[in-house]
Specification:
By secondary structure, the chain is of the alpha+beta class. Strands 5-2-4-3-7 form a five-stranded antiparallel β-sheet. A two-stranded antiparallel ribbon has the order 1-6. A hairpin with a 5-residue loop joins strand 3 and strand 4. The longest helix has 12 residues. The termini are far apart. About 30% of the residues are buried.
Length: about 150
């Protein structure tokens, strides 16, 4: 944990963070997420600010937490998957408490007043640079016409 947030000073807007243990949270409500694995996730975490959760079992994914409703603003490179809900699908992300036993989940960085979320554009730029993948800059939001 990065030490900037304690259970005594948690922002009320972060009520989606469990007080103990860990809980599944529906992406698209309090946050969207981008799931990345391995070395790519470690490198991207070093280049961005904001909350990041790591799981220590299975594929050992790392989840970058973005503002809700923003993950669809980018085409994510291979190895990164945007997670949100809607259009007849749902995605859940495990969120650990800020303190105590939370295995197999842990915070790489907790949300802070300065960085309550990972900036989607900064994460996208870092992942594209790290993978060498450069798509069209953005995908129009559903219902928007191309200009």
């Amino acid at each position: 944990m990065n030490g900037e947030t304690t259970t005594e000073s948690v922002n009320p807007a972060w009520n989606w963070i469990p007080r103990t243990g860990h809980s599944l949270r529906l992406a698209g409500v309090h946050f969207d997420a981008v799931r990345v694995a391995g070395q790519l996730a470690e490198e991207a975490a070093r280049e961005t600010d904001g909350p990041v959760v790591h799981e220590s079992v299975g594929e050992r994914y790392t989840y970058f937490l973005l503002p809700p409703g923003t993950v669809r603003s980018h085409r994510w490179p291979p190895g990164a998957r945007g997670l949100t809900s809607g259009d007849r699908c749902a995605a859940y992300v495990g969120i650990p408490a800020l303190r105590g036993g939370t295995w197999p989940l842990s915070w790489v960085r907790t949300p802070t007043e300065r960085a309550p979320f990972v900036d989607p554009a900064a994460l996208h730029a870092a992942l594209c640079r790290l993978t060498g993948w450069y798509p069209c800059p953005a995908v129009p939001a559903p219902g928007e016409e191309s200009r």
